[in-house]
Amino acid sequence: VPPFALTQRDGRCYGRGSADMKGFLACVLAAIPDFLAQPLRMPLHLAFSYDEEVGCLGVRSLVAHLQASAEKPAMCIIGEPTEMRPVYGHKGKLAMRCDVHGHACHSAYAPDGVNAIAWAAKLIGRLDELGEQLALRQDTRFDPPFSTLQVGVIKGGAALNIVPQHCQFDFEIRHLPDVSLDDTLASLQAYAEGELLPKMRATAAGSAITFQPLSQYPGLLSDPQSAFAGWLAQWAECEDFSTVAFGTEGGLFDEAGVATLVCGPGSMEQGHKADEFVSEAQLEKCAQMLKNLCRWMSA
After folding, report:
1. Which of 156, 164, 184 lies closest to 172, judged by CA?
2. What's 7-90+219-298's CATH class?
3. Are strands 220-221 and 87-90 parallel, antiparallel or unpaired?
């Protein structure tokens, strides 16, 4: 579907990003005249960002500004698609890239080389073990109820008769909000430097293993019993609080000292698809939430 054209059909609004999350943005912009017409007892802030999908890059300067400000917004609603159900938590994410540099040679003399793919495989095996360790700590509020680690991309080798000099793989960890990854990453680094590199360099002194962060955002775990949560339940006319599997910018606002919850129209099941849509019924529910919020702010 095109990014800048909307098609309405059978009670649905089709368009790229309509569910994630232009539907919410449209509802908010449409509600601004109502807010301007009322004597609000507190200011309303609108925060629009970009590059959220690749590590929440665009919002970080805004968050830094908030952290440096003497006065911060009291509350933040992230309008990601939750089918208008209030959400108080999601996992954080760290994406990493590993480059393994070995030594190439003709495969007939394979012992003279350092097979980068073979040594990368040992690292991936260690990652599997670390993933199993992460899974031991569980929180049933999340699905799955533990942190996950997976290798999603691997590249290496030039030809079957050449011992590969280079192998690169990307992995990600989606972790529970209160789980630190310091020990996991330190263990991986120690394995690479203490176990693998000495053996690799015994054959080729120039062998190397490097790790590079690709993207990261924190998890979110707000209090579903807070006053803010109670108000959001009233505005959204829904008390069905939950967590979600996907990530948002919410953890960054929360780290900046702004109480944050997630609630928006549409479902992530329709996001990132060729026929992405948000239903008109969901947009109407969002519009009603904003009307309720406007009344609360002007009461």
Report:
1. 184
2. alpha beta
3. antiparallel
